[in-house]
């Protein structure tokens, strides 16, 4: 294990990225347009519009980041504005971020603290309210193993309202993870890079309080010679999904997605696209 231990949310991340996408390979069953530009002084603006049925949602995001601090503001069509201010390396390994939402600052304000030292990664988020919720995540590692936990304490209820624990194993060509949440849900995830262009993954979830509460999702992705990405996904309910993502020209990416119910072909399929343009 490298000196810097991955965060708790990184356990099973390779599988989630393959099955559901992250910065790329995201299944999109609506119509989405994302335009990102950067000014000469380093301010980045991103406009996102998503059409869901007959409703169009839009958001404008502005971000500026230096080695010492970062500021982000997001303005949505619902009339809410969220902001965050981050301060990096206030002490070795210590980052602090303040969050807020306008106009309801009092109920949404919170502070997040990230602390990373060799063999230990901590993240804590505390609401800046009269009776805040306190979330703490911690991970440590040994060789290729990651061990960690996550717990939320509600000061109003004076009780731990949710918790999770997990273990992960990471190598260059594969990663595995096991997560237990609230003693009710057990998830096992696995992702394997078969070669430089082909990857496969699976996620199995068991609801421990239900006799037949087991679900699974299988996925496969292939990087083509022209750089395009192809994904297929199938779950235990017979829902099949496919994605084709390609770069139309430098900084212009188009993703086409489709989904259908293999157990009910009379059900209309879902089709969507996402166009990302960066200047």
Automatic annotation (TrEMBL):
Taxonomic superkingdom: Eukaryota
Name of the molecule in the record: Uncharacterized protein
Signal peptide: none
GO cellular component, one term: mitochondrial outer membrane
Molecular function terms, GO-annotated: voltage-gated monoatomic anion channel activity
PANTHER family assigned to the protein according to its UniProt record, in alphabetical order: GH26960P-RELATED, VOLTAGE-DEPENDENT ANION-SELECTIVE CHANNEL
Family per similarity comment: Belongs to the eukaryotic mitochondrial porin (TC 1.B.8.1) family.
A Pfam family per the record: Porin_3
Species name: Coccomyxa viridis
